[in-house]
Batch of 4 targets.
Target 1
Amino acid sequence: MSERIMLIPAGCILTMDAVGTALQDHTIVSKDGKIAAILPTAEARAAYPTAEVFDASEKVVIPGLVNVHMHSNLVRGFGDNMALYAWHEAIAETVGMETRPEEMQMGALISYLEAIKSGTTTMLSMEKYSAYCYEAAVQSGGRVRIVPYVLDFDDCVDKVELNLEYVEKTLDPALRTRFIFGFDSFREAGPDLIRQVGALSEKYNILMQTHSAESVDDVKLCLEKFGCEPVKYLYDLGVLNERMILAHGVHLTQEEKDLVEKVGARIAHCPTSNMKLSDGAAPVREYLDRGIRLGIGTDGANSNNNYDMFEEMKFAALLPRIATKKADDLTAEQTLRLATIEGARVLGLDQEVGSIEVGKKTDLCILDMRSLHCLPFNMAEPGILMSHIVYSCSGADVDSVLVDGEVLVKNHTLTRFDEANLFRAANVMACDLTARLKARGVRM
Ligand SMILES: [Zn+2]
């Protein structure tokens, strides 16, 4: 079989490699979905005169963004003014109970596509009806890691057995969509179930994720129920280790921070959701200074209310400053690293994605920054381009997106779907679900 070679000539490539290389007038040579070379454009065109060309010569190319914690949603736009526990009970649980599997599948599809269209190529999503979400993830073309909402309730649809079944079904590392292990939180999963998930994660050497230390109430409840804080509780159960990704990790004691650092656990930082649910500000600078692996997540659209990682980067860069009163907590470049290569490290995918380097997958986010909000626009000023990306841009500036060299978005348009038809079909379902939620007493 002949190789599929594609040339992607770029105005500027922000590689996000270890030394932050930025290249002007270079071309990414993609062979069978992997980056085979990065050459000066004239050289690449001479070397591959007949290759297909995907032109980004007026555009800025960055690695596809990595969202390390999200949940799919078909509906959003209510429960905007509630703190975590009240919101969880009145909104998250009610929406979860009312949503039917086919609605969840549609919700997952539009959520993954929203993320892809705004530049995210790799995402970790915790889902109810995760088997249905799996089908949606495969359809979307994104690189998705699914964690089921494993709970200790009899009517739980995502039992640990299903989690295991889908982990085994998706063991092939070549698959774009795979399962990891996880459980919702200590609130919904008892100690035996948590230990069981931990043992499976160890046996298969596969990551796991749970919500932890998200708000002050979360810490209070764990202290009341188990006599210790949430992260310490996970440690005592033997599941705080290098395979654990803690979603949020806002309120940790010094002892808990020491434990996370010692065992090499990972953190999914979700600044917008933390602000919206009035959780507080995670000590991001301190985590990074301790060498803790940390990436950025949007959380679900019910508490964000979108999957735009550009917005998330801006809030990630700004939120710590409120807590520390220090303006240099996170630079634009450091923030972009968190949303790319560091996110990939959190998901154990840094050898494959997260930076634009030879041997990695052709997962790219291509930005058209020829807009009034991106002046000065000069390919030779990577520092300014990165500032624009973090502070001025939004997902709407994403022109094209590639995963494994497959073009999933071109000229701001999804290639696998007719977006207008998809919108209509999804909106019929979303309006129907909203009406049922209203009938259940959810305040709009
Ligand atoms: Zn979450």
Target 2
Amino acid sequence: MAAEYGDEIDLESDDRKRGGRGAGGAGGKRGFSRRKICRFCADKQVQIDYKDPQTLKYFITDRGKIVPRRISGNCAKHQRKVSLGIKRARMIALMPFAVTGK
Ligand SMILES: [Zn+2]
């Protein structure tokens, strides 16, 4: 019985030190990562800011709802920050409360 044991543990994340912050907005379309890891834990440079809808919009659906944690893969701490940020961003009209169909 050769049971293949394929556990994907992602403890060892490659810490990119000296990451120059002169990235300059790399707007890639592939923001869809397969592995369930909190992108804010993985990339410490990404800040959750309610004034930054570019980051927050990854965590709402096309209807304007907040994506649940099991889908987004965020950890509890960061999901809280994301949802708080989205709610704040809604207040100052940076993000939609709901997107109704046409
Ligand atoms: Zn996290």
Target 3
Amino acid sequence: MTITERPPELNGESYMRLALQLAESAAGQTASNPVVGCVIVKGGRIVGMGAHLQRGHHHAEVHALLMAGSEAAGSTVYVTLEPCSHFGRTPPCCDRLIAEKVKKVVVACLDPNPLVAGTGVERLRAHGIEVEVGLLEEEAKRLNERFFKYIVHGMPFVTLKTACTLDGRIATKTGDSKWISNGESRKYVHTLRHRHQAIMVGVDTIIADDPQLTTRLDVPALHPVRIVADSKLRIPLDSRVVRDGEAKTIVLTTKQASLEGIRRLNAYGVEVMRCGDGPQVDLRLAMRMLAEREISSVLLEGGGRLNGAMLEAGLVDRVVLFIAPKLVGGEKAPPAFNWAGVERMKDALKLERLSVTTYGDDLCVTGYPVYPDGWGEPSSDGSAGKRETPVTPAAKEEISDVHGIG
Ligand SMILES: NC(=O)c1ccc[n+]([C@@H]2O[C@H](COP(=O)([O-])OP(=O)(O)OC[C@H]3O[C@@H](n4cnc5c(N)ncnc54)[C@H](OP(=O)(O)O)[C@@H]3O)[C@@H](O)[C@H]2O)c1
Ligand SMILES: [Zn+2]
């Protein structure tokens, strides 16, 4: 006897699950836009399906409505994010749904932007369309966690990915780090790269490993923007991220960086951003500056010191930790999270919503840090408090841009 998972029943949840799958299939290709899926059902048949595939292209509802054609009238629409209600370059999705005379709209979650949340639903109801909100809401929110952080806080969502040995080291005492995790784990990392807009490392990782930081999969995939934290421009000019031209590279630095050094990097097409005038890159300011450039997600790939500094500043949203069943020992072998640390165990930074999976014989633990009040330092730009950033220009722009482009 083989025991398998029960096949899904046909109900509203199964249609919404399909819409979520459609949305998820576009993860990584919508830039700073959310991923959204839509399924239209009428008389017991799916008559339209769609996903938002690319910023500036049709929203999911429009794709699905186009497929449904005249069948849209009297149908039930399952959509993973509240339909937009603001005019941009084309009429908002709400107006399309109203014009097509759909009967009912089932929404998984409301738009996170406090300036627009609920307005789409209100508009539909005002036109006599039945609206239900909250079906598979948690899944829908998780799917767009990057977009939600970016829109509400004006900061990129940061996934810290690292691979360490069972004794928590990311290299041996001689600095050898190839390879800690197995091929299966490393393959999955390339999918993570495809799904983030930027990838970030500390300059010592560039010096030690000269990584390409591109996405290499069996199918064509998107390269993230490569970001290097380098306060004094120590990055070697012959490193791959400077020379290979495979993807855009941005070096985050400080006022200490010489104009000459900046010019040399610019000559290779590398952009240099000065983030603060302190001894090291002001990471909070750097994240804010990246968000202003519409980078809504960052995959932080170490090394240990940058990982530690990002955690210490409260800037990491999710941790993906690959643990290989190896022990390397050595006091000098670098740890995965290198920071000053807390004094008491009760002050440890905890992770919640843990999930554990395996890639071959590697363990992969994913969790979300829960920062206690006051964790993270105020930025040198004078702004304080890491989680209370008010609605930002990015959020305001969403009204005319993210949800305005048809
Ligand atoms: N297993 C893995 O997944 C993995 C991944 C990556 C790296 N590694 C290994 O990790 C080792 C390198 O790690 P590492 O910890 O020595 O170096 P790192 O984290 O790659 O780079 C640290 C450097 O980043 C710069 N930086 C700029 N702003 C900073 C800030 N605000 N806070 C902290 N650092 C800042 C600093 O140099 P400046 O002060 O000059 O700016 C600092 O020395 C290598 O052996 C590499 O092979 C392993
Ligand atoms: Zn829309």
Target 4
Amino acid sequence: MANRTDNSTRCSTSKKPNDGLMLILATFTGIAIGFLLGVSFPTLSLTKMNFPSSIVPSVNTVYIEEEKPERSSKKVLPPQELNNSSGAAFHKIWVPSNPRGAEMLPPRIVAAESDFYLRRLWGLPKDDLPAVKPKYLVAFTVAYGQRKNIDACIKKFSDNFTIVLFHYDGRTSEYDEFEWSKRAIHVSVPKQTKWWYAKRFLHPDIIAPYEYIFIWDEDLGVENFDAEEYIKLVKKHGLEISQPAVESRKSITWKITKRIPGIEVHKEVEEKPGRCNDPHKPPCAGFIEIMAPVFSRDSWRCVWHMLQNDLVHGWGLDFALRKCVEPAYEKIGVVDSQWIIHQKIPSLTDQGTVQAGKSAFQGVRERCKLEWTMFQKRMSRSEQKYLKEIASASSNST
Ligand SMILES: *[C@@H]1O[C@H](CO)[C@@H](O)[C@H](O)[C@H]1NC(C)=O
Ligand SMILES: *[C@@H]1O[C@H](CO)[C@@H](O)[C@H](O)[C@H]1NC(C)=O
Ligand SMILES: *[C@@H]1O[C@H](CO)[C@@H](O)[C@H](O)[C@H]1NC(C)=O
């Protein structure tokens, strides 16, 4: 496979390996899962709220809930349709259509999905949220050194976006200097990658209300980008998986990501000879890179399931995205008229560790390549196995 150029929160090739020697290193073993869900909304601690206990019950009885639960999209089976094959005989309530493990609950109480909306500690729950709730989500994986760029990026995303910051350097409270920080969700786990975070904190059921999900690196220049305009174009052109086109001072690895001036969107390109066996397949079509992807809700549900818990750099993922949309060459594309500049500032690679005579950079880079191979193998084995099983099942039945 051809070389890939760098990408700060993934792996970087633009740095010479010896540069990595200069880096300051902490050991991976010391990774404190200092997990700081710093929702910096009200800094009230519940333990400090000493209500006289007599108030509490009266508060409870004053408010009689009239609202319907916000989400009860699950089909509710009438009792006569509930059969006893899976426990109905032993339980007063047994609803097979509930999520697995929740069958004993009456369906209307089941809240199978969630959101990142911040709520207040007082007042009526129904008045917590603004009339227009954010319907898009943007997640950046960041280090404090890039805060100015992050600030510039976030200003390109309107109030219709929920902002999530994944802090891989453990610094979170410093962001309070930015006004938007108060409404952002801060998640801090040192030395983890964008895809590690995405797998753990962006489960499709947790971010269910968001129509589009941006999962971006921290080193993107956004002078020529506006998120609302971007979404209009993505909708107009039916893109389920997309990225803004890229301008870069350095060379661009995959031609499809390069901006074509004067048009709104492109979905395919001609690559160097030999790179594409099929013009409808990556890297000529059905392809974007993983530094600034944007997913529709449905495509993210599929892509999330494809993320492997142990493969954290995301290498090879871009080539497999097409498996989540059909036909990929029409639903995956690059938006030219809202575009970004890739500044290529490697940073997460600086967070590796010197090991067995290898620089930190080298170690991270080798891991990236290894993961790519592992991912490809898993995918092809799993496909082959499945197709074989299907074939033998159908030959048995005939
Ligand atoms: C249970 O009931 C559902 C709904 O009527 C039906 O589709 C299903 O086949 C039944 N299962 C068994 C084991 O009877
Ligand atoms: C369902 O319940 C009936 C009556 O209790 C019983 O005869 C039957 O065997 C049960 N069926 C299953 C699949 O458990
Ligand atoms: C946010 O979304 C609403 C509803 O779609 C739209 O009317 C509004 O213009 C959007 N806000 C911005 C800043 O674009």
